[in-house]
Structures are given as structure tokens and as C-alpha cells.
Structures
1.
Amino acid sequence: SLTLEEIAHGVEKKIKVNKHISCTSCKGSGAQDGAAFHKCTTCNGAGQVHRVTSTFIGQMRTTSTCPTCNGEGQTIQNKCKSCHGSGLQHGEEIIAINIPAGVGEGMQLTVSGKGNAAERGGVPGDLFIVIEEVKHPHLQRDGNNLLHDLYINFADASLGISLEIPTIDGKAKIKIDPGTQAGKVLRLRGKGLPSVNSYGKGDLLVNINVWTPQHVSAEEKKLLEQLRNSPNFKPNPGKGDKSFRDRVREFFE
């Protein structure tokens, strides 16, 4: 699991993996001692067997893996008592993984040669890592962009204010202009997440929400009643005020 901060900058993670490892007693050979190997008598050490069969068009020669030694060309007369000749045992390994910046939920990384060990010294498999993102308390991810809902009160929206908002690199100060309308989106360019294996970065989009109190005191109610009939408080959107459709279109462009 990765936080947005780790995704933004890349990180090295050490994970504990339970898997098949080479047997520590026989060092993966499967034999109790070094003299326990003998040439397979079925294939004479070739690892393959040949068969000739007669058909109506003549004789056919086929080659297949030796069933006695499974293609290894040798057999174990004295198997390791710990792994019973497989050369494997269950164990765990601490593996360091370099995770690049910009990875996303569900993305899969492959670490070559760090999967299960193969029988008797064969080529080990690969380890597959699936990325999981930890939910951020204040930021939401949308591709390489980050989204933040900022709530301000009516007075701050009317008079304007400077505020600090969270980013993946700490706090950033923004200015709310006087007369800011609910639904306005501020774009902080380059404050989003990087693309994987790229130099580009997304933006931080701040959605302005003007909070309306659900309960007011008698004194507050009296003040609001005085403001209600003021001509300046009657809705009067101008050409510069974008419609909901325009804001949605701009958001997804």
C-alpha cells in the first residue's frame, strides 16, 4: 500500500515474501550428498528418450522428455531428508523494491527472479507486485490530477481571504478573491502527480464550496434579514459568471 506522497516521489519498499526457497540442507540440489547423483539409465544422461513406431507410411521417430529423470539426465539415489529431493523448502525473504513515481491503483510491477525458487537449481520465477493506494484524508486522485474540496463561509466568499490548503508537498497558500462564487475551481498547475516514466505532472484542482449554516442564532438571523432585502445581495450573474455546464466542460478539458 502506498500513500499519495510516496506515489508522487517514488519510494523504495521492503516487503516480506513467503515463498519456495532453495533447501538450506542440500543447497537446492535435492541430494543428501554430492555423490548421490547417478546418470539416468533410461535416457543414458540425455534427458530425452526416442521412440520408433511403425505406421502405414513407414517408421516414425518421436522424441520426448525422459519420464524417469524428468529431463535432467540424472537421478538421485540418496534424496535430501529435509526436502525429499525437490531442492525446495518453504521460507521467507525480505525484498527491496524500487517503485517509480506516478504508479496507480491496480498497476502491476514485475521483479525478475524474485518469485518461487525452481526445483534443484532451476531458474526462479518472477515476483508480481500489485499497487494499492491509501486513501488521502484531504485529496482525491483523478488520473494525474488531484482534487480538493475547500469549504469557506459566506463572509470569506464575499470579502475574500487568503487560506492554506493541503498538497502532497505540504501546505500551499491560495487567495480567494472577493465575490467568489460557489463552484469555482482554482487550478494549481504542477501540484498534481507525475506520469510514470514521464516528465509531465498533473494539477491540483480546488473546488470552492460556500458553506451555508444550517442553524443560526437570533442575532445572526436578524443580521441576515437585514441583508436579504439589500439590492446588492440579489443574484445578478454577469457574463463573466460561468454556467454549470461551462464549469463541467472546463473541468474535464
2.
Amino acid sequence: MQPFLKGLKVLDLSMRLPGPLATYSLNLSGAEVTKIENIDWGKDPFREKVPGLENFNDWYQNLNSCKKIVEISFKENQEELIKEISDSDIIIAPHSKRLKALIESHSKGVCIFLDSSKTLGGMHDLNALALTETFKSHFIDTLSPPYLPFAGIAFAQLVSQQALAGVIARKHDEVISDVIYLDEAAKLILDSLASNHGPRVLNNGAFPCYQIYPLKDGGHACLAAVEEHYWAEFCEVFQLEFSAKDRMDASGKVEKVIRKLFTNLSTSEIKEKIDNRRFCLTLIDIE
């Protein structure tokens, strides 16, 4: 990626996932990010290695290794905090009255404040997802929460987008400030993909051409041969006599044949078959 935001200074005062993910995406485009962690509140919870929550520490490392990390007491080092605020073009921070007032008093840039909900009080990712129309489709196969925090990811996308929009919109040393809420962001982003055409669609396995198939050795084949020419090449390679219409068969008959085929093949056997062929098939190795 080209560093189009080189020279842009971003101050990240947030914790956990959405804020750090938003500033991580800004860094990917060249922005210089400083993350200040307030030791009055304790460290960013994602820094701790807690049994069962090890993925949080992985996320912390992945999202923040590109940033300058500073640990200070906001109470005892307010001058240092104010200097960082006044020197930054974009500030991403939690939405608290005291911190918001301090930032808006000393900022000369764009201030984006993060909150969970304007009306419902505290909530986590699952609560925000539960308010979206798109999440209902998740219950087709499982009652387990999704592996990734999709509401937080949508939240981060909107935060970084609004921050950049503010940079474009501001004039001279004008301060631009906005508050973005987790539940509203989830609904705005995720429900833009809502559909009333049934719970089973192409993207979640309605048809045999777009499925995950288990293999003989424990690996998996991710097939996405949606277009006719990809489907035709897939059938040619695996000697299947299916028509173009069969790729959208919803009866389960075509899928059953393909599942049987793949359960008799290993990852290495499929690799040999698909060498130098292109029809949207990706293998997930067991190693």
C-alpha cells in the first residue's frame, strides 16, 4: 500500500479492539500512530495473557506493534498528554465527559470519541450484533457466538472513515469532533447487507458451488466456483458430469456427490489435480 497518509499524526487513547483497529488501518496507509495507555485505568485489557482469552493478547500485538506505545498517568502527566493532543491531527478516544472536554480544549484536529450505545448503556460485541438484522442468519447452523467480533470490526471501519472525512472537511486549525457508537455502527455497516430473500443464500452455503468440503486427511477444500466457466473447469478436473445449472442446485443432491468425492481424496491428491488450474478452489491444510 502507498503511504498516502505519511506525515499525518494520530493519537490513539483507546483500548481493546475497535479503536486500535481503526488506528491500525490508518497506519497501514502511512499515518504515524502513538498509543497512550492511561495507567490510572490499568493497562489495555487485551495486553493481559488470561487463560481462555489468549487471542485478545494476539490481537493487541498484531494491532499495536506498529505504534509508539506510551504508558502514563493522565492525572499526573496531564501536560504530556495535552502536548500529544495538541500535536495530533486525529485523536481516537473513549467517550468520557472529562476526557472529551480536555481533548476538545487542546486539540487542533479531528476528535473521534468511541462509545457503546447512546441509549442502551454498556454492551459488548455480541449485544451489538444481536441488534442487527443480518445476525439472524447466524442462527441457521449454530448458537455459538461468531469467532470474530464483527460489530467491533464494522465499528473500527466507520471510526477510521469518519476520522479521514474530518481531516478532509476541516479548515485551518478548526476542531472537528464526533461521537460514534458501537451499536449504531454495527447496524449501519452490517445491515447495509441485509436481505429478505431467506436465511440460506450463496454466501452461507445454499449451493454446492460455494461450500467447504472436508477431505480424507482432515483438511478442507473451500470451493467458490460460482461463475459458469469456473464450475465447468472444476467438473472437468474432477470428472463430474454436472451442467451449469447444477452449480445452483438447492436440493442437496449435487452437494452430496461432491462431498462424497472429497471425503475420498487427500489434500496432496487434490493439489496434484488442481496444479496450474484456476477455478476458485483453496485448500486448508491440516498442518
3.
Amino acid sequence: MSDISDDRGEIENLLARYCELFDSGDMDGYVALFSDAHIANHFSSSNGPEELRAFFERNGLFYDGLPQTRHVITNLHIEVEPVRQHAKARSY
């Protein structure tokens, strides 16, 4: 049986994968991470991968098909519920 530190590690790896996929321009892989997600920010929200892809197609700046970004995550704060069914993460 895994413990909460294993859950935190999986969330950290997911965040790193998110950055890697987006920065490399792998939009198929990137949106697949969010197949069951609801994503909201100050400007919009999306449900599922196709809405997320449409958001980036409308709003993203791409050069030669790539976003030319380098995501860096700091101040990572992860809260795993004691029953380990849900977790929240925030970062800068």
C-alpha cells in the first residue's frame, strides 16, 4: 500500500509532465492529461481535452508550430486529503 508521500510524488510528476508536453508542443499528449478535467482560470474554463485544445488554438502564440515556452514551477503546495480520494495543488 502506498502512502501520502507516494501520492505527492505522482502529483509532482504529473505537473512536470504537463510542462514538458506543453513546452515541446505535444498538444495531443498535453490535452490527453486533462481527459477528465475541468480547468478554470481568470479568463475562461474548459471541460475535457477538446475544449482545452480549442482554447489554445484560439489564444496560444505558436512559432513554427511550437509554443516556445519554458514552464518553471515553484512554491509547490500539495494537500492530499486523509482518505486520499482527492488532492489540491497550487504553485507559482
4.
Amino acid sequence: MPPGTSEPIADWWGVIKSTDAGAQYDDYFERQDLGGTIYFGIDSMAPEVKSQIESLRDSGKIVHLYGTLFSNVPDYNGSQIVVERIEVKE
């Protein structure tokens, strides 16, 4: 994905994890649906989704994300998913 671009994402799944104490960013998304692991910063503009992200950190629950991926931004691994909706796999 070229720097400074964005693209919609749908049904990416993985887990939300906290960064280590003192890290520049507070959490990240570990994408697991491609057979490997890829890391992305994660945030939301919607207060209820932001709260959901915080409550799912380090829970080990598989989540499915829907939103927009932005590249070359100041967040974990230089990218950020701005989440519009989260579905938790039960």
C-alpha cells in the first residue's frame, strides 16, 4: 500500500493487544487471517467503538474489524485502522 493512502477494510480478524509499558502507542491489532501475523495501529472516532477496543485489549478474543486502513501515519507499525464496527467471535 503506497504511503499516505487509505483503503476500506472488511472482516479482517485477529486480536487486540496492549503495547509494553512506556511505549509510544497504547495498543495494536494483530491481524491473523492471512496465515501470518501483521500488526496495525488501531483507533476509532466513535466513543462506543473506542471503549470496545479498550475492553478487548489482551482478552485473547478474536475480533472482526470493519473500517478504513491508513498508511504512513503516526501509529503502531506506521499504519492505523480506524474502526467503524467490531464483531467479537464467540
